[in-house]
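Chapter review: from sequence to fold.
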Amino acid sequence: MGRWLRLVIALRLALVLGLLWAPWVLSAPVSLWRVQQGPSTLFLLGSIHVGQPNLYPLPAVMDQAFIAADQLVLEIDLGLTSPTAMAEALLSRGTYPATENLSANLSVDTLRLLTAYLQARRAQPQQTDLSLPTVQRLRPWYLAMLLNLEALKALGYVPGLGIDQYYFQKASLAGKPVYGLETLESQIALLAAGSPSQQDLILRSTLETNQKIAQLLATLTGAWKAGEIDLMYKLAIADHADYPALEDLMDEYLDQRNLQMAAKLRTYLDGDKTTLAVVGALHLGGEQGLLALLAKDYEITQLQSSDL
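The C-alpha coordinate string follows.
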Protein backbone atom coordinates (compact mmCIF):
# COMPACT_ATOMS: atom_id res chain seq x y z
CA MET A 1 0.00 0.00 0.00
CA GLY A 2 2.79 2.41 0.83
CA ARG A 3 4.53 1.98 -2.54
CA TRP A 4 1.27 2.39 -4.50
CA LEU A 5 0.39 5.53 -2.56
CA ARG A 6 3.85 6.97 -3.26
CA LEU A 7 3.37 6.40 -7.00
CA VAL A 8 -0.01 8.14 -7.05
CA ILE A 9 1.38 11.04 -5.02
CA ALA A 10 4.42 11.43 -7.29
CA LEU A 11 2.24 11.59 -10.41
CA ARG A 12 -0.07 14.16 -8.85
CA LEU A 13 2.84 16.27 -7.64
CA ALA A 14 4.38 16.34 -11.11
CA LEU A 15 1.13 17.80 -12.44
CA VAL A 16 0.80 20.33 -9.61
CA LEU A 17 4.35 21.62 -9.93
CA GLY A 18 4.11 21.77 -13.71
CA LEU A 19 1.06 24.02 -13.38
CA LEU A 20 2.64 26.13 -10.65
CA TRP A 21 5.79 26.85 -12.57
CA ALA A 22 4.10 27.66 -15.86
CA PRO A 23 5.34 31.12 -16.92
CA TRP A 24 1.83 32.54 -17.35
CA VAL A 25 0.81 31.92 -13.73
CA LEU A 26 0.90 35.34 -12.03
CA SER A 27 -0.63 34.24 -8.72
CA ALA A 28 -0.33 30.89 -7.01
CA PRO A 29 -1.36 29.45 -3.64
CA VAL A 30 1.23 29.42 -0.88
CA SER A 31 1.46 27.52 2.41
CA LEU A 32 -0.16 30.34 4.37
CA TRP A 33 -3.75 30.55 5.61
CA ARG A 34 -5.81 33.32 7.20
CA VAL A 35 -8.39 32.71 9.91
CA GLN A 36 -10.67 35.62 10.81
CA GLN A 37 -12.75 35.89 13.99
CA GLY A 38 -14.25 39.35 14.54
CA PRO A 39 -11.39 41.79 15.14
CA SER A 40 -8.88 38.94 15.54
CA THR A 41 -6.79 37.49 12.71
CA LEU A 42 -4.67 34.35 12.78
CA PHE A 43 -2.17 33.72 9.99
CA LEU A 44 -1.18 30.05 9.94
CA LEU A 45 2.09 29.35 8.14
CA GLY A 46 3.37 25.85 7.46
CA SER A 47 7.04 25.65 8.36
CA ILE A 48 9.92 23.66 6.97
CA HIS A 49 12.21 23.23 9.98
CA VAL A 50 15.40 22.99 7.92
CA GLY A 51 16.16 24.93 4.79
CA GLN A 52 18.65 25.74 2.08
CA PRO A 53 19.69 29.25 1.05
CA ASN A 54 17.67 28.93 -2.16
CA LEU A 55 14.48 28.70 -0.07
CA TYR A 56 14.76 32.47 0.34
CA PRO A 57 13.41 35.00 -0.28
CA LEU A 58 10.05 33.66 0.85
CA PRO A 59 6.89 34.80 -0.93
CA ALA A 60 6.26 38.45 -0.06
CA VAL A 61 2.82 37.63 1.32
CA MET A 62 4.47 35.68 4.16
CA ASP A 63 6.65 38.61 5.20
CA GLN A 64 3.63 40.90 4.94
CA ALA A 65 1.72 38.60 7.31
CA PHE A 66 4.62 38.89 9.75
CA ILE A 67 4.61 42.69 9.49
CA ALA A 68 0.86 42.76 10.16
CA ALA A 69 1.15 40.45 13.17
CA ASP A 70 1.24 41.77 16.73
CA GLN A 71 2.80 38.53 17.98
CA LEU A 72 4.50 35.36 16.79
CA VAL A 73 3.55 31.84 17.87
CA LEU A 74 5.88 28.88 17.28
CA GLU A 75 5.74 25.22 18.23
CA ILE A 76 8.13 26.09 21.05
CA ASP A 77 9.40 29.50 22.10
CA LEU A 78 12.96 29.38 20.77
CA GLY A 79 13.94 32.24 23.04
CA LEU A 80 13.40 30.10 26.13
CA THR A 81 15.72 27.31 25.05
CA SER A 82 19.50 27.66 24.88
CA PRO A 83 21.50 25.21 22.72
CA THR A 84 23.19 23.93 25.88
CA ALA A 85 19.89 23.24 27.64
CA MET A 86 18.55 21.52 24.54
CA ALA A 87 21.64 19.30 24.25
CA GLU A 88 21.44 18.36 27.92
CA ALA A 89 17.74 17.51 27.66
CA LEU A 90 18.33 15.34 24.60
CA LEU A 91 21.25 13.50 26.19
CA SER A 92 19.37 12.82 29.41
CA ARG A 93 16.64 10.93 27.55
CA GLY A 94 18.63 9.84 24.53
CA THR A 95 21.42 7.78 26.09
CA TYR A 96 21.60 4.42 27.83
CA PRO A 97 22.99 3.91 31.31
CA ALA A 98 26.39 2.25 31.49
CA THR A 99 24.78 -1.18 31.95
CA GLU A 100 22.98 -1.07 28.58
CA ASN A 101 23.93 -0.57 24.95
CA LEU A 102 22.32 -0.04 21.57
CA SER A 103 23.20 -3.36 19.94
CA ALA A 104 21.52 -5.35 22.71
CA ASN A 105 18.29 -3.41 22.16
CA LEU A 106 18.05 -3.74 18.39
CA SER A 107 16.60 -6.54 16.30
CA VAL A 108 18.97 -8.55 14.13
CA ASP A 109 17.63 -6.93 10.95
CA THR A 110 17.93 -3.35 12.22
CA LEU A 111 21.40 -3.94 13.62
CA ARG A 112 22.53 -5.35 10.29
CA LEU A 113 21.04 -2.39 8.43
CA LEU A 114 22.64 0.09 10.83
CA THR A 115 26.07 -1.54 10.52
CA ALA A 116 25.93 -1.41 6.72
CA TYR A 117 24.67 2.19 6.78
CA LEU A 118 27.47 3.40 9.06
CA GLN A 119 30.11 1.59 7.01
CA ALA A 120 28.80 3.11 3.78
CA ARG A 121 28.66 6.65 5.13
CA ARG A 122 32.21 6.49 6.54
CA ALA A 123 33.43 5.90 3.00
CA GLN A 124 31.87 9.18 1.87
CA PRO A 125 33.78 12.48 2.03
CA GLN A 126 33.11 15.05 4.77
CA GLN A 127 31.32 12.63 7.07
CA THR A 128 31.87 12.50 10.81
CA ASP A 129 33.54 9.46 12.27
CA LEU A 130 30.47 7.56 13.43
CA SER A 131 30.82 3.83 13.79
CA LEU A 132 28.91 1.14 15.62
CA PRO A 133 31.18 1.29 18.70
CA THR A 134 30.82 5.09 18.97
CA VAL A 135 26.99 5.03 19.00
CA GLN A 136 26.49 2.24 21.55
CA ARG A 137 25.32 4.63 24.27
CA LEU A 138 22.66 6.24 22.06
CA ARG A 139 19.05 5.15 22.20
CA PRO A 140 17.46 4.34 18.81
CA TRP A 141 15.29 7.49 18.59
CA TYR A 142 18.23 9.78 19.37
CA LEU A 143 20.53 8.05 16.91
CA ALA A 144 17.80 8.22 14.27
CA MET A 145 17.53 11.98 14.81
CA LEU A 146 21.30 12.49 14.61
CA LEU A 147 21.63 10.43 11.42
CA ASN A 148 18.73 12.31 9.88
CA LEU A 149 20.32 15.67 10.71
CA GLU A 150 23.65 14.56 9.26
CA ALA A 151 21.96 13.43 6.06
CA LEU A 152 20.23 16.81 5.81
CA LYS A 153 23.44 18.74 6.39
CA ALA A 154 25.22 16.71 3.72
CA LEU A 155 22.59 17.96 1.26
CA GLY A 156 23.01 21.57 2.32
CA TYR A 157 19.99 21.80 4.62
CA VAL A 158 20.56 23.83 7.78
CA PRO A 159 18.30 24.07 10.87
CA GLY A 160 19.19 27.76 11.15
CA LEU A 161 17.55 28.32 7.77
CA GLY A 162 14.23 26.83 8.85
CA ILE A 163 11.19 29.07 8.46
CA ASP A 164 10.38 29.07 12.18
CA GLN A 165 13.94 30.17 12.99
CA TYR A 166 13.74 32.83 10.27
CA TYR A 167 10.65 34.45 11.75
CA PHE A 168 11.88 34.04 15.31
CA GLN A 169 14.95 36.11 14.41
CA LYS A 170 12.77 38.73 12.70
CA ALA A 171 10.50 38.91 15.76
CA SER A 172 13.50 39.33 18.06
CA LEU A 173 14.80 42.24 15.98
CA ALA A 174 11.36 43.83 15.75
CA GLY A 175 10.64 43.42 19.47
CA LYS A 176 7.52 41.34 18.86
CA PRO A 177 6.45 38.91 21.60
CA VAL A 178 6.97 35.22 20.91
CA TYR A 179 4.95 32.38 22.41
CA GLY A 180 5.08 28.59 22.17
CA LEU A 181 2.34 26.01 21.67
CA GLU A 182 4.47 23.30 23.30
CA THR A 183 7.57 22.98 25.45
CA LEU A 184 10.94 21.49 24.63
CA GLU A 185 10.43 18.92 27.40
CA SER A 186 7.13 17.74 25.96
CA GLN A 187 8.59 17.37 22.47
CA ILE A 188 11.58 15.36 23.70
CA ALA A 189 9.33 13.15 25.84
CA LEU A 190 7.30 12.40 22.73
CA LEU A 191 10.38 11.53 20.69
CA ALA A 192 11.57 9.19 23.43
CA ALA A 193 8.19 7.46 23.76
CA GLY A 194 7.34 4.03 22.43
CA SER A 195 8.20 0.45 23.23
CA PRO A 196 11.67 -0.98 22.49
CA SER A 197 10.30 -2.65 19.36
CA GLN A 198 8.79 0.63 18.16
CA GLN A 199 12.03 2.47 18.79
CA ASP A 200 13.76 -0.23 16.76
CA LEU A 201 11.35 0.44 13.88
CA ILE A 202 11.87 4.20 14.14
CA LEU A 203 15.59 3.72 13.60
CA ARG A 204 15.03 1.22 10.80
CA SER A 205 12.59 3.48 8.95
CA THR A 206 15.03 6.40 9.30
CA LEU A 207 17.87 4.35 7.85
CA GLU A 208 15.71 3.35 4.90
CA THR A 209 14.36 6.86 4.32
CA ASN A 210 17.85 8.37 4.42
CA GLN A 211 18.77 6.28 1.38
CA LYS A 212 16.36 8.39 -0.70
CA ILE A 213 16.21 11.55 1.37
CA ALA A 214 17.45 13.89 -1.38
CA GLN A 215 14.54 13.04 -3.66
CA LEU A 216 12.04 13.05 -0.79
CA LEU A 217 13.11 16.49 0.46
CA ALA A 218 13.05 17.99 -3.01
CA THR A 219 9.53 16.64 -3.49
CA LEU A 220 8.34 17.83 -0.08
CA THR A 221 9.78 21.30 -0.66
CA GLY A 222 8.10 21.41 -4.05
CA ALA A 223 4.76 20.56 -2.46
CA TRP A 224 5.31 23.26 0.17
CA LYS A 225 6.08 25.88 -2.47
CA ALA A 226 2.90 24.88 -4.31
CA GLY A 227 0.82 25.30 -1.17
CA GLU A 228 -0.16 21.63 -1.48
CA ILE A 229 -0.17 20.91 2.21
CA ASP A 230 -2.36 17.78 2.03
CA LEU A 231 -0.06 16.37 -0.61
CA MET A 232 2.94 17.13 1.59
CA TYR A 233 1.26 15.31 4.48
CA LYS A 234 0.55 12.24 2.35
CA LEU A 235 4.12 12.19 1.06
CA ALA A 236 5.53 12.27 4.57
CA ILE A 237 3.35 9.50 5.99
CA ALA A 238 3.40 7.22 2.95
CA ASP A 239 6.39 5.21 4.20
CA HIS A 240 4.72 4.61 7.56
CA ALA A 241 2.12 2.48 5.79
CA ASP A 242 4.89 -0.13 5.68
CA TYR A 243 5.15 -0.02 9.50
CA PRO A 244 1.67 -0.56 11.03
CA ALA A 245 3.28 -1.13 14.44
CA LEU A 246 4.10 2.59 14.51
CA GLU A 247 0.49 3.68 13.98
CA ASP A 248 -0.19 4.59 17.62
CA LEU A 249 3.04 6.59 17.81
CA MET A 250 2.13 8.48 14.65
CA ASP A 251 -1.22 9.24 16.24
CA GLU A 252 0.64 10.76 19.21
CA TYR A 253 3.17 12.58 17.00
CA LEU A 254 0.55 14.24 14.81
CA ASP A 255 -3.15 13.77 15.61
CA GLN A 256 -3.03 14.18 19.37
CA ARG A 257 -0.62 17.09 19.18
CA ASN A 258 -2.82 18.70 16.54
CA LEU A 259 -5.79 18.60 18.89
CA GLN A 260 -3.77 20.33 21.61
CA MET A 261 -2.30 22.88 19.21
CA ALA A 262 -5.72 23.69 17.73
CA ALA A 263 -7.11 24.32 21.20
CA LYS A 264 -4.33 26.81 21.95
CA LEU A 265 -4.61 28.50 18.56
CA ARG A 266 -8.30 29.11 19.24
CA THR A 267 -7.34 31.20 22.27
CA TYR A 268 -5.48 33.62 20.01
CA LEU A 269 -8.72 34.18 18.09
CA ASP A 270 -10.62 35.20 21.22
CA GLY A 271 -8.99 38.63 21.48
CA ASP A 272 -8.44 41.48 19.05
CA LYS A 273 -4.84 40.92 17.97
CA THR A 274 -3.24 39.67 14.78
CA THR A 275 -1.12 36.57 15.25
CA LEU A 276 1.29 34.77 12.97
CA ALA A 277 1.57 31.10 13.96
CA VAL A 278 4.41 29.14 12.35
CA VAL A 279 4.11 25.38 12.84
CA GLY A 280 5.51 22.34 11.08
CA ALA A 281 3.78 21.98 7.71
CA LEU A 282 2.91 18.33 8.42
CA HIS A 283 0.62 19.50 11.24
CA LEU A 284 -1.58 21.36 8.78
CA GLY A 285 -2.62 18.65 6.33
CA GLY A 286 -4.77 15.55 6.63
CA GLU A 287 -8.20 14.86 8.06
CA GLN A 288 -6.92 15.52 11.58
CA GLY A 289 -4.63 18.40 10.62
CA LEU A 290 -4.88 21.90 12.05
CA LEU A 291 -6.63 23.27 8.97
CA ALA A 292 -9.37 20.64 9.16
CA LEU A 293 -9.75 21.07 12.92
CA LEU A 294 -10.00 24.87 12.78
CA ALA A 295 -12.32 24.76 9.76
CA LYS A 296 -14.97 23.24 12.05
CA ASP A 297 -15.32 26.60 13.82
CA TYR A 298 -13.86 29.24 11.51
CA GLU A 299 -13.70 30.24 7.88
CA ILE A 300 -10.17 29.65 6.58
CA THR A 301 -8.71 31.19 3.44
CA GLN A 302 -5.57 29.98 1.73
CA LEU A 303 -3.57 32.98 0.58
CA GLN A 304 -2.08 33.53 -2.85
CA SER A 305 1.34 34.90 -3.67
CA SER A 306 -0.38 38.07 -4.89
CA ASP A 307 -2.48 38.63 -1.73
CA LEU A 308 -2.13 41.33 0.93
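Two observations follow directly from the output. The chain has one domain: 2-304. The two ends are 41 Å apart (CA to CA).
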